[in-house]
Design brief:
The chain is α+β, with helices and mostly antiparallel strands. Among the domains are: about 100 residues, PH-domain like (Roll); about 350 residues, Beta Barrel (Porin), CATH 2.40.160. Helices cover about 30% and strands about 25% of the residues. The protein contains 15 helices and 26 strands. The strands form 5 sheets. Strands 11, 12, 13, 14, 15, 16, 17, 18, 19, 20, 21, 22 and 23 form a 13-stranded antiparallel β-sheet that branches. It has a 7-stranded antiparallel β-sheet with strand order 4-3-2-1-7-6-5, covered by helices on one side. Strand 17 and strand 18 form a beta hairpin. Helix 6 runs parallel beside helix 14 and helix 13 runs antiparallel to helix 14. The protein is globular, with a radius of gyration of 29 Å. Belongs to the OSBP family.
């Protein structure tokens, strides 16, 4: 409390796109827990232009610059403010945070446990300000018709048999309906007056009721597993029961604070699909399928993620979600709102990292180990720009276990660099590589083919495996990635755990590499992506290695998307090449002979991938699996996209429970477990080795 002081002064406030930034006079009222602002200091005696309750608010310095910060109230209202310099911003932020913490803690201290109090929802008897003193407790059961069911005293709860779980499920469904009615009733209250939808007791009631229902759903699942184990004996050794993700998706319950009602037809179709998935587990064959590249057509899909409208409209949903998260919390099992999704699966995003196959194939054409390492570094650094669709930080679909994605690229042999002097930045912007055709319309055979396959091999933890090969150049890459996402306050961090290996069979070289972390910044304003962390590339045979640093933007000043690195000969500890620049703009390569090469990523040619039409894809191939979600997002129908997404996720949960109950292990289709990693079932290095052995035997 020694640091709680009433401060005031001028700050710039962002109003809208038309008006922009305007100077306003702000006053921090610590006693009432309010942030007020006026047109100027002279009008301070008048009614404030605006007021924010700081209890439960989030105060966040912005990533944009060292002067800006945001105040996000629990009500969903936001002030975007700018101080004159970094020092003044820090002064305001620290005082606001102290005041916010004080009044947020006061709510908890002044409210005894729920079982010993009831909520005053219809009371008219209090004249004290809710920011200073709580209202006396009064009964609110009649207002919302919420009752409590208690077991008769002295009776022991019997062990429920499976048929009793049906009754439990019914009661829980009724409770979920009552909880939705409760939230709807609270949201329908007026925004001003004696009893409002922003009443602190009601906000607490909303959060508690949702948490309770999520907990009950988790407990119900544990009971199901318990009954399954009783039928088959005890659970196998090493089996653990994990907490499940919330069954009540925020996106299904709230849209700007209002409950959503999906059409009955959609709900009916979804329930039919779920019932079928429970009664009939997936009978699809898990045998690997050979994809014929000739069946694949050049991709014409071009979904650019540049729409900010939904993010602005759904700010209240984001704030409500953030209020339930804690710093460092694992987001793997958190159901995120549908409107933040981009229109592709994570497996397809990995494929889009291969959108410069000419640079990939050119690696093995390097004339020396040094040149091949430098070419691999060039390809590696240019892959991330095209892998991101637009500047907005949207999230790809979480792949369903067993989901696969197939595609390929065809590159004219004449377009692949053969010497070190080829400058790959000479292409014109947005240039597309197309193949020459003969008079009959068939593509000539003078091209390289790069084939790609990815599979989601695990759900918890979420692990993806992907593999690409160019048979003509005797090269392939195999990788597995475990995505671990964490909540970091006003940003989300994603760690890519795993390893990739590039095999240049012509030279007998293997290059191991890792992937950087990704961060979604400014998630309450305009979310954007940056990469961070140190990655290493090593070739044990040649003794060459590369160390690359992706620099996150510092708190004060600094550039965005900066990357630096160096290629070194480990035996002599000699740096043979240095690189610097931005991973989404221009990269500068400086060689030890004094030469410099610039690669402009915005002008690099992009080769469109080739994908089979939807009607030829299997049910678990990404585009066919997510087609209804993608179509709904293209149409801007967030509600419909949410329902399709929920049906897919629910089917996955049901099948996972069935496998757990029947102790049936999951069988992958294309990738095999190899120690801590995953390897493609028929990699090129095994095929070539077998062919060489056969040839030796025949001789």
């Amino acid at each position: 409390s020694d640091h709680m002081e009433n401060i005031c002064g001028y700050l710039m406030k962002y109003t809208n796109l038309v008006t922009g930034w305007q100077y306003r006079y702000f006053v921090l009222n610590n006693d009432a827990g309010l942030l007020e602002y006026f047109v100027n200091e002279q009008s301070r005696q008048l009614k404030p232009r605006g007021t924010l309750q700081l209890a439960g608010a989030v105060i966040s310095p912005s990533d944009e610059d060292s002067h800006t910060f945001t105040v996000n109230a629990a009500s969903g209202e936001q002030y975007k403010l700018r101080a004159t310099d970094a020092k003044e911003r820090q002064h305001w932020v620290s005082r606001l945070q102290i005041c916010t913490q004080h009044h947020t803690e006061a709510i908890g201290k002044n409210n005894p446990p729920l079982k010993s109090r009831s909520f005053s929802l219809a009371s008219q008897g209090s004249t004290n300000s809710p920011g200073v003193q709580r209202r006396p407790s009064q009964n609110a059961v009649s207002f919302f018709n919420v009752g409590h069911h208690r077991l008769p005293t002295g009776k022991r709860v019997p062990i429920m048999q499976p048929d009793h779980l049906v009754d439990v499920r019914e009661m829980m469904s009724q409770a979920e309906g009552q909880q939705r009615d409760l939230i709807r009733s609270i949201e329908c209250l007026p925004a001003s007056g004696h009893l409002t939808s922003l009443d602190q007791d009601l906000l607490m009631l909303k959060a508690t009721s949702m948490a309770t229902m999520n907990c009950l759903n988790d407990c119900f699942h544990i009971l199901q597993l318990q009954h399954a184990s009783q039928q088959k004996g005890s659970l196998p050794a090493g089996t653990t029961i994990s907490w499940l993700e919330p069954k009540i998706s925020l996106a299904n319950h709230f849209k700007n604070g209002a409950a959503q009602n999906f059409p009955a037809e959609i709900n009916k179709r979804a329930s039919v699909r779920e019932e079928q998935s429970i009664a009939e587990p997936c009978q699809l064959t898990r045998e690997p399928e050979e994809i014929n590249p000739d069946e694949e057509l050049e991709d014409i899909c071009d979904d650019k993620e540049d729409d900010l409208g939904a993010v602005e409209e759904q700010r209240s949903v984001i704030l409500h979600l953030l209020s339930q998260l804690k710093l460092g919390m694992d987001l793997t099992r958190v159901v995120l709102p549908t409107f933040i999704l981009e229109k592709r699966s994570l497996l397809e995003m990995y494929a889009d990292f291969m959108s410069h196959p000419d640079l990939f194939i050119a690696i093995t054409k390097g004339s020396s180990p040094e040149e091949r390492m430098i070419r691999f570094v060039e390809y590696y650094l240019t892959s991330f720009h095209e892998g991101r669709k637009g500047a907005i930080a949207k999230k790809p679909y979480n792949p369903i276990i067993g989901e696969t994605f197939h595609c390929s690229w065809r590159m004219p042999k004449s377009s692949v660099a053969t010497d070190a002097g080829t400058n790959s930045s000479a292409h014109t912007p947005s240039e597309q590589i197309t193949l020459p055709k003969d008079p009959e319309g068939q593509a000539e055979l003078d091209y390289y083919t790069v084939k790609f396959v990815a599979e989601q091999v695990s759900h918890h933890p979420p692990v993806s495996g992907f593999y690409a090969e160019c048979v003509e150049r005797n090269m392939c890459v195999n990788a597995h990635v475990w995505t671990k996402s964490k909540f970091l306050g006003m940003s989300i961090g994603v760690t890519m755990v795993g390893e990739g290996v590039l095999h240049l069979l012509e030279h007998g070289e293997e290059y191991t590499f890792s992937l950087p972390c990704a961060y979604a910044r400014s998630i309450l304003t305009v979310p954007w992506v940056e990469l961070g962390g140190k990655v290493n590339i090593n070739c044990a045979k040649t003794g060459y290695s590369a160390s690359i640093n992706f620099h996150t933007k510092p708190f004060y000043g600094g550039k965005l998307h900066r990357v630096t690195g160096e290629v070194k000969q480990n035996m002599t500890n000699t740096v043979v090449c240095r690189v610097q620049g931005e991973w989404n703009s221009v990269l500068e390569f400086t060689y030890n002979n004094g030469e410099t090469k610039y690669v402009d990523l915005t002008k690099l040619s992009v080769t469109r991938k080739r994908v089979r039409p939807l009607e030829k894809q299997g049910p678990f191939e990404s585009r066919r699996l997510w087609q209804h979600v993608t179509e709904s997002l293209r149409d801007g129908d967030i509600d419909k996209a949410t329902e399709h997404k929920r049906a897919l996720e629910e089917r996955q949960r049901n099948e996972e429970r069935l496998r757990a109950e029947t102790e049936t292990p999951w069988c992958t289709k294309y990738f095999l477990k190899d120690g801590d990693g995953w390897v493609y079932h028929k990699p090129l290095w095994k095929t070539v080795s077998a062919a060489q052995t056969q040839q030796t035997d025949s001789n």
